[in-house]
Amino acid sequence: MSGETDREAERERRLQQLFAHVRPRVKPPADDEAEIRRAVLAEWEAVTGRRILRRRAGLAAAAAAVLAALLYVYGGGPGAPVPAEIVASVERIEGTVTTATGARLALGSGVLPGTLLATSDGQVALRLTSGGSLRVAAGSRVMLASGDEAELAAGMLYFDSEDRPAGRPLSVSTELGRIRDVGTQFLARLDEEARTLEVGVRDGRVALMRDGDSDSAGVGERLVATQEAGAIRREPMAPFGADWEWAERLAPPFETDGRTVAEFLEWFTAQTGRTVTFADLEAERRAAEVVRGSIDAEPMQKLAAVLALADLTYSLDGQRIVIRSR
Predict the structure, then answer these.
(1) Residues 124 and 187 in one domain
(2) What SS3 state is found at 308?
(3) Strand locations in the chain (E)
(4) Predicted model pTM
(5) 47-88 pLDDT, tens digit each
(6) What pLDDT score was predicted for residue 5?
(7) Domain range spanning residue 6?
(8) What's the total number of domains in the chain?
(9) Lowest mean pLDDT among 22-26, 77-81, 206-210, 248-252
(10) Are residues 39 and 145 in the same domain?
(11) Residues 224 and 128 in one domain
(12) Distance between CA 295 and CA 281 in Å, rounded?
């Protein structure tokens, strides 16, 4: 009996450690509290037994992921539990995105350090608490070790440093190299089958380090590293178009009501990598007009709708968007 008592005490101690990472919250009813405690214990034992998370994430990361998943499941409504060390929150989401424990993310969900995300048929845009927008494409696996460190295990991610403080880069580690942003917008694609890593730059610069070798790329370039030994290759890559469209669809919201067309166009160029020119002075004058009404759509669709409100139209000329008065 003493052995069983010791095991019960150890389980209770671990549970207390988990709840120590949660901020004070409204105390739930006694029945609900007992059910939650039983669920936490059961999930903890399942996770530690199956070793769901990668060994490199460590025991602390596993505990964080378990707690995060249970907060998603048992949270909701006024006074719901809030994770203590959130490193990101869901800003946009399409389809199904889950954690390593199978919990589904929703708009506004918080993400704890060590959480492994699997996008399956979905995709998600995360707002990092340390600054910047991190977007994950469908069919990807990404772990957030912290607000400054991510791991790309498969698939694609896009990062826009946006309002991130200067001198605080984001590092992305992969099995084929480590990426470090230098105040930029970049896309990283890890192909597991081809054993290839590609890093494309839309703005600023990125550095890629691998096995003692390193290189950097600027706007309109990409770096390519393969499993085979050899130097990192640099190739041209357009900062707009098909390679970037999935990330554009996850662009952060821009409230148009009460803003000028020119302000919207500034947001549009930052999200699409395109440039804007005016075909005539009248078009430029109308761009200073204030928009009335809210429009929520992906950037290219939103462009046509916003311009129509100011009696403007546009045409594509390669990377340029040429705006004309009607």
Answers:
(1) yes
(2) helix
(3) 88-94, 98-99, 110-111, 115-118, 123-128, 133-136, 141-146, 149-160, 171-174, 177-191, 196-210, 213-217, 221-226, 233-236, 275-278, 312-317, 320-325
(4) 0.73
(5) 433 333 343 334 334 444 444 444 444 444 455 555 458 999
(6) 55
(7) 2-74
(8) 3
(9) 22-26
(10) no
(11) yes
(12) 26
